[in-house]
Structures are given as C-alpha cells and as structure tokens.
Amino acid sequence: MVQLNGSLLELPRKGKAIIVTDIHGNLDDFNKYIDIWEDFRSKDHHIVITGDFMHAMGLENDESVEIINTAKDYLKNSENFHLLLGNHEWSIITRMVLFKGGENITLNFERKLKDKFGGDWRKKIDECSIFLEKLPIAARTYNKVFISHSGPLKDIKSIDDIIHITDAGYLDNKPLYELLWNRCGDYKKKDLDSFLKKIDCNSMIVGHTPVDGYKLIEKKLLVVSSSYSKGKKAYVELDLEKNIKDGTDLLKMIKYI
Ligand SMILES: [Mn+2]
Q1: b or e along 1-39 (b: 16 or more beta carbons within 10 Å of the residue's beta carbon)?
Q2: Looking at the chain, which terminus has fewer C-beta neighbours within 10 angstroms, N or C?
Q3: CA of residue 119 to ligand 1 center, whole Å
Q4: How far is the CA of 125 from the centre of ligand 1 (A)?
Q5: 153 closest CA partner among 249, 97, 142, 164
Q6: 85: CA distance to ligand 1 center in Å?
Q7: Domain ranges for the chain
Q8: Is 230 helix (H, G, I), strand (E, B) or coil?
C-alpha cells in the first residue's frame, strides 16, 4: 500500500510507476503523461511528478494554473497520482523571487494570475501555497529507488531526516534547499554514495537540470527531463517489482514522448 510518512511517500512492491519531471507549465506534455498513465488502467500503476510542474521557463504559454487545478482533482480522486515539491513550487511557499536567463519567472507568473483572476490574484497565490505545503518532498520505492526533484543531501543520518525535512520550515532550511536545488558539481561521488547508503537505496531519479532526455551520473543518479529539456523528452516507466541494483537497471525503463 502507498504510505505517506511525513514528507516521504513510500511506494509498494507492486505494479509500475511513471516518473515524470519538470513539466514547467506545459499543459500538452502534462496531458500526454496523464494519458500514458491512464492507459495502464490498473490500480497498481502510479504516476509520480517530481516537482517543477509549474512556471514556464521562457516566454512560452504558461498553463501552470490549469495543471495545478487538474492535479488537485487527480489527488482527490486517485491514490495513484503523486506530486512532489520542486524548487519552483518551493518559491511560491517561501515567496522567493526566481530568475531564469535574466527573466523574472515569479513576476511572469503573477502577471498571468492578474490576467486570469484580476484583483483576486493574491488570494490565488495564498491558496496555491497552502496546497503546495501539503505535498511530499520525496518518494522511496520498495525496490530501493529514491525519487526527488534534486539532490543528494550531503549530511544525512537516516531516512528519518527526509521524513522530517520540512519540520524546520521551508525557508533557511539547508537540507531541504539541497534536495530541491543541488546540481551536478554541488556534490561529489562520495556524497552520493553515502546519501544512498544512509537512506537504504541503490539509485535515485531526479529532474531539475535540463538534459537531452536523460543522463546517468556515477551509475547511480539518473537525471531525467520530461518536458523542459535540452532535446528529447524522457520519462521512466519504473517497474516496482524488479530488483534494481543500480542506475544501469533504470536505463532499460526509460521511454520518450
Ligand atoms: Mn528545478
């Protein structure tokens, strides 16, 4: 059975999970992944969206509001639909301003809300923030795959640190910041090895850094770009019943849209 343990979602050894990253307000791609998940038509098949489902990253059409509304419905009506927090959702909760390539992403999003809701736009941000604060930060599968927006964390004692990661709040929280913002170069191989050992996992899947479909780091950390990418758009059809000894076993489960 699926269990929510503090900020950690635990997936059972049954069925499959579609792992999707970095939608960034692209409703067409979001709908494609929903269709893939719904085509399975099984109560044992999950979809895990690993954060940054909101905020378009350029001047393209931002359909974050539609995505959030649809996601809210799925969360209400299905036990197999899972959303994790990314750094862009984190910025809504913490009211931090985000820039990308000199563009103010936060302001762009607020403009969108003003167009859509007029004087009610601040209320919509508050509602959005309350919703986002309920989301888990990471997922762990029974076959030892850790799924988060980014990572790994440098100092961790055990999985309990993930379960309680938001107990200290969202702002000025270094472990949470690392789990949502870390990129290649922010950690060393020994940090990755030690992190996975402490949380009893053999590999991890993240988004956050745009790659051409996927990139496997140190045979253990799989970076996936499902929509906002440097080329191909990939996702993982994770078999929850197979033994996964390291990231190379995940490569066979990568698919493209
Ligand atoms: Mn990100």
Answers
A1: eeeeeebbbbbeeebbbbbbbbbbbbbebbebbbebbee
A2: N
A3: 29
A4: 19
A5: 164
A6: 9
A7: 3-256
A8: coil
Show Cβ contacts of residue 76 under 8 Å, excluding neighbours closer than 6 positions. none
Distance 26 CA to ligand 1 centre (A): 14
Question: Residue 42 C-alpha to ligand 1 middle, in angstroms?
Answer: 30
Q: In this predicted model, what pLDDT tens digit does every residue of 21-43 receive, in sequence order?
A: 999 999 999 999 999 999 998 88
CATH of domain 3-256: 3.60.21.10
| DSSP secondary structure code for residue 44 in this structure | T
* E strand or H helix that includes residue 4: strand 3-5
pLDDT, tens digit (0-9, with 9 covering 90-100), for 120-156 = 999 999 999 999 999 999 999 999 999 999 999 999 9
> Cα of 14 to ligand 1 centre, how many Å?
29
Distance 208 CA to ligand 1 centre (A): 4
